[in-house]
Write a structure and sequence with these properties.
By secondary structure, the chain is mainly beta. Helices cover 11% and strands 31% of the residues. The protein has three helices and 28 strands. The strands form five sheets. It has an eight-stranded parallel β-sheet with strand order 1-3-6-10-14-18-22-26, covered by helices on one side. Strands 5-8-12-16-20-24-28 form a seven-stranded parallel β-sheet. The longest helix has 12 residues.
């Protein structure tokens, strides 16, 4: 079977690597797919140890699963749960509707993640390394979790709608080309925004943002030696 034919069929598509085939089967089973080596130094997504093809999957195969994946096995709920996986290429889900649950832990992205105007149930990225997260006007029914993630070129959540909680605890975010670390003007968070021990290197912009519950920046470090404002949150 080729990529262009019958992606909802249960058979494995042709052309998948061993790592991608394992991810495909785990998705149908709703189980975690863990490619970690067990060595904490090697498995550190923020470290310099290379991750080879044995633990790499293409971003377009991940997108295929999330947007038009195969049916779950009988008695199971399909879900994308990855750990210790390197995602190559640009993960682009702009404008898409993603129904499966998404959770990635200790993963490494080679390129930026593009989610503008996409719709999700719940997304959890925990301790992942991402060049940039572009998610303007993204919508989640549930949570958006980004704890302990590191972003080299900023996060954009302008006009995003987070159904319940937004978690940024212990995240490290560096500025983008406009000087902002997190651009979240007009964002709406249904319940709590937790950013405890956040490290922000640039302007954290929350102009006109709305938080239905509590906002916690306890222990956060907001630094912007490049411009006047480290936190910009009027209205």
């Amino acid at each position: 079977m080729t990529e262009g034919s019958g992606s909802n069929a249960g058979d494995l598509p042709e052309g998948l690597s061993a790592a991608e085939a394992g991810m495909w089967q785990a998705f149908r089973n709703g189980s975690a797919y863990d490619l970690s080596s067990g060595d904490a130094v090697v498995d550190d997504p923020h470290g310099g140890h290379p991750w080879g093809p044995e633990r790499s999957v293409r971003a377009r195969i991940v997108c295929w699963l999330l947007l038009d994946g195969p049916p779950a096995l009988a008695g199971r709920v399909s879900a994308l749960k990855l750990a210790g996986v390197r995602i190559t290429g640009t993960l682009e889900l702009a404008g898409g509707t993603v129904m499966p649950y998404v959770e990635m832990r200790g993963c490494r992205f080679d390129d930026q993640v593009l989610l503008p105007e996409a719709r999700f149930t719940t997304v959890r990225l925990v301790n992942c390394a991402l060049p940039r997260l572009e998610a303007a006007r993204v919508t989640t029914e549930g949570d958006l979790h980004l704890p302990r993630c590191r972003f080299q070129n900023g996060v954009r959540l302008t006009d995003a709608h987070i159904g319940t909680d937004l978690l940024l605890n212990q995240a490290v975010v560096h500025r983008d080309r406009s000087g902002r670390s997190i651009a979240a003007d007009g964002m709406n968070v249904g319940q709590d925004l937790q950013a405890e021990l956040l490290e922000s290197h640039g302007e954290l912009s929350l102009r006109g943002a709305q938080v239905g519950g509590s906002l916690s920046l306890r222990g956060a470090k907001l630094a912007n030696p490049y411009a006047r404002l480290a936190l910009n949150a009027p209205s």
